Fold this sequence. Notes:
The chain is of the alpha/beta class. Helices cover about 30% and strands about 25% of the residues.
Amino acid sequence: MTAVGPDPRVVERLRCPVCGEGLTIAADTGQALRCPRRHSFDIARQGYVNLLTGRAPHLGDSTEMVAARAQFLAAGHYDTISTALAEAAARPLGADAGTQAYPLVVDAGAGTGRHLAAVLAAVPAAVGLALDIAKPAVRRAARAHPRGSAALADTWQRLPLADASVALLLNVFAPRNGPEFRRVLDPAGRLLVVTPTAEHLTELVDALGLLRVDPAKADRVAASLGDHFVEESTAVHRQALTLSHSEVATLVGMGPSAWHADPAGLADRIGALGEPVRVRMAVRLGVYRPR
């Protein structure tokens, strides 16, 4: 797919991260978004718009991590997550968010945009926006779906979106900004949060010495969202994975353990595993509505 820039239907929901005014595509060049106060934000040749102000406090996933994630997801190993999100998305967008001609789906911490693309494929009326702080991620996300746009943004900060402008907000293995999620979400909208359970990839965690899921993960999620959202439902989704040694290395390389693992030692431990490697993916999908 060729990325030409953010969809005008998405741009009309964006807000300047400096002053909060609306943004429009620059009429003279078409290569930037500008607000009435002349703050300007470049549209990269890959199609995403840079809505960061100043130097980012952290860079997010590296080029290698994003490439590993793209490869692993393209093989279908986490399709269970995409399917669960797409099925959950059909409900709020079908009836609850009918006030918007083009319901907006935002993925906060979108990575490559694969999960957002699955939701957009399931909801033909919607347009999408992938937000991520990693340039390698938004470069890919801008091309993930014809109705999808992408922006470089820090989701820990104020989101570059109008109040109540989002019909559906996705948050998959990413930081949760409860106050901002509530501000930008339509009162009739929904927030879909995917987090790993304690059994997620335990076979690899034990064998390779990877980072473990925090036992208090569910409590931390509840604490970050509880003042702003009510949980409507929660369900655990599992998928049995059968992986080669190369795919195991790719899986480790796309996640947080990539920052901590010694490459040589990790390769030796992976090589000692029986092949194929059988491992369980287990995640929790929580569906929330605004308070």
